[in-house]
# Entry
Amino acid sequence: MKTLLLFLFLFCLPGLGAQDNPVTNVTVRVSEEQDMVTITYNLARNSRIPFYTIAVNLSLDGIPLPNPVGLTGDLGSQVTAGLGKRIVWNALQDVTSLAGELKIDVVSNTSVSADGPTSCVPIKTLPVYAGIGGIAVTGLGLLVSGLSQQGEANTLYEVYSDNRNPTAAVYTSLSRDAHYEEANSKHKQGTWLSVGGGLTLAAGGASMVMRLLKINAYNRQCAAGEPTTYTLPRLQLNPAFPGAPGLALTYSF
# Structure
């Protein structure tokens, strides 16, 4: 599948292609107190699978730890594809100590046939509504910041325009030329922020609404017992990098 980048704010989102094993780049970090284990991984994207079922297999000194209760995070059913998925294991809820050889496997129990996913499970819409709220906050924040920058630019330019004498008392901290340069700089920043905020609201909101419509249609088919398939919307807005600011809007064709 080819992806055309439409709009990028701050960072670019690397693509995730479908793979035989969708779980990749598993990393494990144990806390200094050896009581908490943080597991991160990437989950490849497949247009026919709306979500994955993720499990963690644990063993200590070769002895499996069945049904661990201290695991939280991106595991279980309905885990969506993406980068930087995170699981935290509160080890002391399952073992007395981590002394010994610890082995951790992150596995996906989701399979796909030629006709689509092997099972029909309704997809939760709450994350989509949360995403729409996040887009609104991000877009409005950019707009407000852009308008603020443009307001400061107008104030600086008014000082420059109203006081043509370079030796005027108002030019104590900044020279007249510096007022003009600063006004231009803030005006450009404000314009870019305002445009970015508008595009984030318009395009990001559209991509989330498209995803919500597809999920609702899938859930209706699932509830009616009809054959179900789910494909990701062509227009998508995703985080650029886990733990970093920025969004990437892509169109798949």
Observations:
- The longest helix spans residues 176-223.
